[in-house]
Amino acid sequence: MKEKTELSGSVFRYSIGNLFVRALSFILLPFYSNIISAEDFGVYAIVMSFYTVASVFFQFGLHSSFSKFYIEEKDAFEKKKIFNSVINFISIISFIFSISIMLMSGEISKLLFGNFNQYYLIIIIAFALLFDTISYYLLHLLKTIEKSRTVLIYSSISALINFILNIVLLYVFNLGISGIILAQAGASLILVIMLIPLITSEYSFAITKKYLRRLIIFAIPIFAAGIFSSLIDVSDRFILNHFMDERDVGVYSFSYRIALIMNVFVISFRTAWVPRAMNLYVQKEYTSTAGSTLTKIIAASGLIFISICLLAQDLFNLQIFGFNFLNKNYLDGIIILPYVLTGYFFSLIGNFYFLYPYVEEKNYHFLLGDAFSFIVNLGMNFLLIPYLGIKGAGIATMLSFMFYAFYMYIISHKKIKVKHNPGLNISIILTTAIIYFIGIYVNNVFIDILLLMTYSVIMLKNFKINFKNLFGLS
Length: 474
Description:
- The protein is mostly helical.
- Helix content is 81%, strand content 1%.
- The protein contains 17 helices and two strands.
- Strands 1-2 form a two-stranded antiparallel ribbon.
- A hairpin with a 2-residue loop joins strand 1 and strand 2.
- Helix 3 packs parallel to helix 6, helix 3 runs antiparallel to helix 9 and helix 6 runs parallel beside helix 8.
- The protein is globular, with a radius of gyration of 22 Å.
- The two termini are 24 Å apart.
- 49% of the residues are buried.
């Protein structure tokens, strides 16, 4: 039965689930930093960059078209046809791609590293891609029908399994970075096994050609956009490795992982916002309610931004039983945090303005936005990294996401109206900037905590932002 939920509840549950996943990953970071060298972490980052790009081909952009056609279809039997067409097609192509990657593992290793030594990591990645893709689409069905509680439970269980496997494989069997990837593959396989009973009533081994054709046609621009989007996320690692070395890639990628806390918020919002915004649009309530949501995500982004920027160095200075919580070999990387976090903020704004090309089936705007953003990212990386190093890569990330947000706003704001409060939004952004610069100037952990409390009070008392109902839409 469909779970009735408001956007506030959905985003809260997805945020909790994503935060739990990232919290477990963050708990592993101190261990990673103290037993894995920056060079090895750079190798891991490059392999996972390959994974990021490959996953776009595995997923094929069908998640968006599935959500659209599944939600719009009213007949339950036809909904099942849509789901089966997607899951069966995806499973088949994922299996084919995985076998292909295994057979070409040596050549892929040589392409990424200039040698065949990391072929075994590529083979493990092939398994991870297969299981990750299938579990992703099974969870996506639950997200589309807004079963956020179920998604939270199973995502959390999978994250916990991944955490335990990391401990066992990395610290007991001392498998290094291969243990990290094996843990991911194993957790995804177990998640697939757990989810299968939930979809048996929906599933049959059948592909309806008329639906698959429509789904693929709708997905092609999103698939192409996904390629550019993934390259925006990972091209900096390859360019850093070209101009610098694997240690710099490792240091950069380690701090990037810290910044991913903001991306948890972005993903959680996007996951809940797509079906909710579509329903609001159909009910003709979007124009009157979306503006308040924009204000609240700006406020929440500001809180996350200053929390990470101000407390990151404190975590490197923190010692527990004589050991650094985070190894200072990775400390140089925190210089990228303000730029990457700002980039994620603009990514959030771009996701907010997704509705117009989505409901009008003008998906080429997603492709154009990501394509132009990739060009900006690529150009800025080649221009800035030789002079600014990892800081240049962070700035390039920020500029590319900024361009994407600007593009989505330009094409959307006149087509689908939103009642904004620009004065309040600007005040929140200025408050965030002032709090940030004070914290950076003073550089004291107790002052940092006081500033965070001050920011929260200002949002609650002065700007009337209720963090308990951050995304509530009445």
